[in-house]
Model the fold of this input.
Amino acid sequence: MEIVITDTLPAGVEELARASSRATFYHGRTWLESVAAAHPRMALRCAVARRGREPIGYLPFFLLRYGPFLRAWSLPFGTYGGPVAVDGEAETALLDRYARLARDVRTLEAGWVDFAGSGAAWSGGATAQTHLVDLSGGFDALWKERFARKRRQYARGAERAGVTVARSVDRSDVRAYYRVYAARLALLGARSPHPERLFEELIARGGEGVRLYLARRAGEVLGGHFNFYHRDSVIAWYNVTTPAGDDVRAGSLLYATCMREACADGFRTYNLGGSLDKASLIRYKESLGGVPYRYTTHRRFGALGRLAWGVARVRRGR
Done:
């Protein structure tokens, strides 16, 4: 077996992702190349395992440079990464090769987000949580049995208030969505981690794998959902509403519409995204039928990274 590091996704790895239950949307060309295009400071790399000429596994990651030093993440922004391989031997070899990055004198840290539970070779790690909604029984059962009564009332109330939700078919809608997204973050006192270009790239490249839903009333955009689709799973990504949208509970109707259409298209799981241990957010996701799912984020520090981490801990302790 040979492990090589490439600066592009080689031919054949998308087929591995489509065939593997361990892969997510984030392992695919649409996400990886969109991030690379929108964040030029981040360099896309891919560890590829080969037997002969055929790829039998790969592990995508990004390098972010700080002068002569670097950080490596598979994958950044809390998205799921790690290896996708045809067998355990190739998976372990990829993780071992990736771990060597942490021993490079230039590396501050190397990390990866292990959603599928592939990380036996990396001990420890920090636990994170998302919520998954089971769509396999169809939307009617989900709506009646697992949507909270209050959530159903809110969705119906939004419809009575004149809110409509539909999938966008016009790329110009990305701009309207981005204005809502940026304004929501500003209200929270946060800056957007992404430029508008990332959203444009995702729509342009994604086909049926990236869908934007917008909530409108009387022509005004009240909110939107970006959803990612891979195999039988949907990932909800940056779901936002305006204050006016909050007032008429447009968010509840957005979720209900997205889940209903996902069920109709045969998807079996709807991932509501990270909860950041916020009790209010966890309650909200549970009211949509979400069940907790825990996964692990692994980090290994280089010598300079361990020194910087230690200094930071001392400063926090003062």
